[in-house]
Design goal:
CATH superfamily of the largest domain: P-loop containing nucleotide triphosphate hydrolases
Radius of gyration: 39 Å
Order of helices and strands: HHHHHHHHHEHEHHEHEHHEHEHHHEH
Number of strands: 7
CATH architecture of the largest domain: 3-Layer(aba) Sandwich
Strand content: 5-15%
Bound molecules: adenosine-5'-triphosphate, magnesium ion
Number of domains: 4
Amino acid sequence: MRAATLRYSLLGIFLLGIAIGLFMAWQASHVLFGLALGSTIMVAVLLLFARDNWRQTSSRGLDSRGIRPDSLRLIVGMDPGLRREMVGIVPVALVRRMSGPRIRPSAASRAPLTKPSASRRTRRRGDTLQPYETVTLAAERHRAGIDDVFAALDSELIGLVPVKKKVEEIGSLLLIDRARQRFGLSASRPNLHMCFTGPPGTGKTTVAMMMADLLRRLGYLEKGHLVHAMRDDLVAEYIGQTAPKTKQVLDRAMGGVLFIDEAYTLYRAEDSKDYGQECIDILLQVMENDRDKLVVILAGYKDRMDRFFESNPGMSSRIAHHLEFAEYDVDELLAIGRLMLDRSSYYLADEAVTAFSEYLQVRMHQPWFANARSVRNELESARLRHAHRLAAEPGRHLSRDELMRIEAADILPSHARAGRSTP
Ligand SMILES: Nc1ncnc2c1ncn2[C@@H]1O[C@H](COP(=O)(O)OP(=O)(O)OP(=O)(O)O)[C@@H](O)[C@H]1O
Ligand SMILES: [Mg+2]
């Protein structure tokens, strides 16, 4: 109250002084009076503008807006970007107050701040983790939802131990890459083009589809679909037709996996006029330039693919991962057969297991044997015989078990036919 009285008294004396000054200037000369009046008006206008800023930055004004000038909070609280840069030199307790419950300081957080390096793609505000935060790979796997893919890989595919290990390795590489991105650590995207080698029916296409799903879930592919292509889909017979044909397939595959089966057929060393080389050149270009949008998987027999890479070093250098699919042994083929039957609610009677195993031992050494695919084909024939056998007695009462059970008799004809060589 007393301060207000004093303020108004001083203002009164100040205005009186101005009035006396103006009166004296009027007495002295009209020109001097004009100058004094102009200066007074200018000062009054400036004071009016300054008053608002002055009020906003006064300690009471700042306080009313939750800004306390007496702490570091003022600097870091006004600019979240600056706040991020200052983490590590700001006391942890203060940071916690500034950023709320999202920040969980750990033991590592008390370590001195190392130079933060952030990639542009992950520096969106609120996305990047603080250097003292931690992640677990289990949580990252869960976040990406890839546990299902690994579970399917394990339960739906028999054997293939080295392949599963390699898929796990690729998954780990990408999980680490993702975790690093969350901290804003920059790195180029890992090269994901692959080559699957192995005989027919060993699960190459099946694993490629799972890989596409895995890459989509981890965010390395937008769509995660698989486009299957062979030489005829990519290479044309006449001049000028190969490039549009190849580009059409590439367009369809964008955002997913282009799976080129029997990829070695693209290159024909003996034919200098072959348009396969034109297709390979386009593929090489796209594999380099569009590696963020497309993953190419080349598949084929190992020896032929090795020769293909020898003749096409450019292609070889673009393939980062080689997965080898080995032929299955009898026990694995039998287990695959049982798994396939189980999925369709059939099963092999004990004698049928023996019969089927004997059949496989003969069949697997014959030409055109296609591993798991031959098993599937043979079991489809067995189902046919099973149905035919039951249908032969239309008046018989059939139990649920009989409808599910494949007998040795349903296999034996296959065994008898083992001399035939079809896939
Ligand atoms: N290890 C396995 N366990 C269970 N089923 C399998 C296994 N390997 C392959 N199969 C099944 O066998 C069939 C053929 O597999 P797929 O088409 O993936 O083989 P491929 O190697 O691509 O053959 P190709 O070289 O002839 O194209 C599919 O139905 C697949 O599910
Ligand atoms: Mg295949």
